[in-house]
Amino acid sequence: MKGSKAVGELKKLARDPLLLTVIILVIASLFVFIVYPLFQIGKVSFVNQSGEFSIDAYIRILSGSQLLTALTNSLVLALIVGTLSTIIAYTFAYTFAYMNVPFKKLFNGIAILPVISPPFVISLSAILLFGRQGFITKNLLGLENANIYGLNGLILVQTLSFFPIAFLVLAGLLRSISPALEEASQNMGASKLKTFMSVTLPLSIPGIANAFLLVFIQSLADFGNPMTIGGNYTTVAREIYLQAVGSYDMQAGSSLAMLLLFVTIVVYVIQKFWVGNRSYVTVTGKPTGGRRMIEKGPLRNIMFVICTLLSLTVITFYALVPIGSFIKLWGINNSFTLDHYTYVFSLGQKAIVDTFTLSIIATPIAGLLGMIIAFLIVRKSFIGKKTLEMVSMLSIAIPGTVLGIAYILSFNKAPLALTGTASIIIAAFVVRAIPVGIRSGVTALQQIDPSIEEASTNLGANQTKTFFGIVLPLIKPAFFSGLVNSFVKSMTAMSAVIFLISAKYNLITASILTQVESGRIGVASAYCTILIVIMIVALLFLNLLLSLFGGNYEKKQPKLKKHPKLEKQPTPQSVSM
Amino acid sequence: MSSKSVTLNNVTKTFLDDQSRLVHAVSDVDLQINKGEFATLLGPSGCGKTTTLRMIAGFEDISGGDIYFGEENVNKIPPNNRDCTMVFQSYALFPHMTVFENVAYGLKIKKMPKEEIEKKVDEIFGIMNLTEHKNRMPNQLSGGQQQRVALARALVMEPGVLLFDEPLSNLDAKLRLLMRDEIRRLQKRVGITAVYVTHDQSEAMSMSDKVIVMNKGKIEQIGTPQEIYQRPRTRFVADFIGTANFLEGVVTSVSDEEVVIQTEQTTLTVVKSDNFKVGDAVYIVVRPEAITLKEQGELEAKVTKSVFMGQIQECEVDFGGELLQVTIHNPMGERTYLEGDTVYLEFTKNSLHVIKKI
Q1: How many percent of chain B have pLDDT more than 70?
Q2: Does the CB of A517 have a partner CB in chain B at under 8 Å?
Q3: Which of A223, A270, A395, A407 fits A237 for a cystine, CB–CB 3.0-4.6 Å?
Q4: Is A8 on the interface with B (CB under 8 A)?
């Protein structure tokens, strides 16, 4: 019977050659750029230098070498950062959902800032503040030889970088808890504290677990921060890079990558299926209205102070980088200079142009591909759909470093000799960016009545016309957020592409890393500042495009009751690793 | 407008369920809908009516059989090239287009010149009182207006066949009655073939030339509303359309025009509607209005429930162990029987109907 079903589906597809072509192309490209490279690292990790099968590398790692230290270090770090971030995020999110405090919008914006910023900003600021010449350590506290490099530094910068992810998850969850439940509890005589402990907190446990695990994966996969501020505290993503590029030990690099991939996928699966199914809160996408906000009281004031302090910290960290870029030699010669920019514009121009060009090429590809895959997953049935769904879903759990090493292993010889070309970098950009696009596309499509598309077909439109005339306009918000995400991701990408840059194509992030490694923090800051400026300009331009061509139909509908506040807040989907 | 007939020959739809078992959603449906006819597919949810409609539209592949529009076999014609338009249950208006753009959408795809599109759309807006809403967005309209836009969008295409998928189920009761009349009036006016799906029997009764009652993927009966109600062919049809009491019995004698049936409670003589033989096990279908309650008579029963409903008095009587529903129209001025009263039943011979027990 299964066979006849498959035949039936094939027949149906054969009648729609365009759809068939699209499906084949999508599956083929996912295979070439995701499945095949992962298979390659798996293979290489089991082959020793003389080309025979061996599990030496795994034995070497697990028997307690420096490589094992990297793995345990990463897990310890991820655990600490996950816990701290979740606690901070819960405090923040609770304040948002339950209290009336001033500057709410501002806090919200600040809280999500690290999500879209280049991976170095916070590390650089941490060095500027707490490094050997750090403003706080040296100038304020008068410490000589203060050491921010290592575990403490990593905890600080990763927590600041990743708590926004936890915040987005928790804020969404807390907002969707029906106030009626808490009112019911109070109505039955429970105090506010009792209500929190026995209703609100238990209801938010799935969200807490979710937030923790997301941050956990991020921290594990993080490359930029350990490279800049890790010091002697080796972590796994960094070690993979050092093994592969530094000592050219591909087998060690690959097996470490396999172990990292294994951990992230397990954690992702736990997060997705185990925690996901445990949610008590029905997420309708609509905010539950009418929660009575806490307007005053000591608790509110404490929370307000915490939020303010945290926001000020984030602002400080961001403000320091541009400031640092104009200072001659931070901590030693604090005079104003434009030298760093002169340097960047003379020597680093190529990296800027390359990054921008490649990102601009990757953005529409990733944006459109994400929507097409989402459309196929939600609306079409075909052979291999389950696999397509799995691959595109799990690809979100592939750490950049793993993808990077997989790509150099897979694309260094014919017929896919792409190493050193622009296409391999673009492919890496696209693969890193589409999971988020697919997810937001799937969510958007699931909310659209399929009969709208049927109506279009019924009135004579073909697939292409229906997709571009009806589907795409309807999921435009998801499409545009996918574009923005792709652009931001590509501009700030490092972990995967660091393996793929060449003399022909250099990237800003890689240049920043080089500058940091040689201690030229001023130049690194200048690069970062330029990167941020380019991104802001590009995002403003994209927003302008949206308002010009977007013509979002929802805005024309005064009758539609929507909570504009919620609409504007980014969903957890805009977050990924 | 060139209206077309619709013919279904042995149409079957099968699919595999989660456990890979073969399920017949629709099996062996034979159906002929004439040009200009208003035909309704009626049945409970899951009976295959919507699947049948979607196969006609081309949204579902057929597993077997043939579908014809007029003389043309449309099995292999993709849905976007079939000469039929559909009014969807959810209306499926394009939310990002104005009312005008929605209605003009199909014509634009046909590459009709702009002036002609405007002329056609204006004409249909005139007929359907939509002119003033032309530039509005769909969800600035009320439910009834949205419904009319959906209808206008389908009608403006001048299709060979017009399909309706439970179009009134999202409207409130009053509006539903209004739209019912409007759809029927428009359909008659343009003389288009219409296939209409509903689970609401009163909708089917009031609008259709032909009612097709479906159950479990099969056609139970095809007929005019009167035939379906008065001469149901199966117990399912009798039960689904309106309220029916069933008396089980055996045929004891057959003449040219009448059949005599012995039930547990009594012997009844009924108009012959099928080939019955002596000894056949049958059901007598007794509609609640086919029973009259009297103070005297032969067939004694006890009132077990009596509810005043305004227009009618609804009673339930115990007739020799069988509970029968009885409705009495406008009991004002006459005696109202209450719970516990003893009454005598009188059956209206012409209102009784016999079906074979299968």
Answers
A1: 99
A2: no
A3: A223
A4: yes
Taking residues A107-122, report their average pLDDT: 76
Nearest CA in chain B to A454: B59
- DSSP, collapsed to helix, strand or coil, labels residue A284 as coil
Torsion angle of alpha carbons A77, A83, A88, A91, nearest 10°? 180
The pLDDT of residue A144? 67
How confident is the model over A78-101, as a mean pLDDT? 90
Which of A569, A77, A88, A87 minimizes the C-alpha distance to A310? A88
Whether the CA torsion B109, B110, B111, B116 is positive or negative: it is: negative
Per-residue pLDDT band for A17 (boundaries 50, 70, 90) equals: confident
pLDDT in tens, A296-328: 778 888 888 888 888 888 888 888 888 888 888
| Nearest residue to A168 via CA among A549, A577, A574, A572 | A572
Please, what sign has the CA dihedral across residues B347, B350, B351, B353? positive
Kindly report the average pLDDT of chain B as a whole number: 90
Amino acid of residue B233: R
Nearest to A461 among B80, B93, B95 (CB): B80
CATH for the stretch B6-235: 3.40.50.300
Nearest to B61 by CA among A454, A11, A3: A11
CA distance to A102, A160, A294, per residue, from A305 (Å): 11, 17, 15
Please list the residue range(s) of chain B that carry CATH number 3.40.50.300.
6-235
**Long-range Cβ contacts of B122-131 (<8 Å, 24+ apart):** B124/B152, B124/B155, B124/B156, B125/B152, B127/B186, B128/B152, B128/B186, B130/B99
What's residue A284's pLDDT? 42
3-class secondary structure per residue, A536-549: HHHHHHHHHHHHHH
Chain B residues within 8 A of A550 when measuring between CB atoms: none
The strand pairing partners of A393, in sequence order, are: none
List of chain A residues whose C-beta atoms are within 8 Å of the C-beta of residue B75: none
pLDDT digits (tens, 9 = 90+) for B203-255: 999 999 999 999 999 999 999 999 999 999 999 999 999 889 999 999 999 98
d(CA B9, nearest CA chain A) in Å: 20
Where does CATH 2.40.50.140 sit in chain B? 243-356
Domains of chain A (ranges; CATH) run: 1-46+341-507 (1.10.3720.10), 66-337 (1.10.3720.10)
- Determine the pLDDT at residue A346: 85
Half-sphere exposure of A576 (CA within 13 A, CB side): 27
Q: Which fold has domain B243-356?
A: OB fold (Dihydrolipoamide Acetyltransferase, E2P) (2.40.50)
Contact flag A5-B84 (C-beta cutoff 8 Å):
no
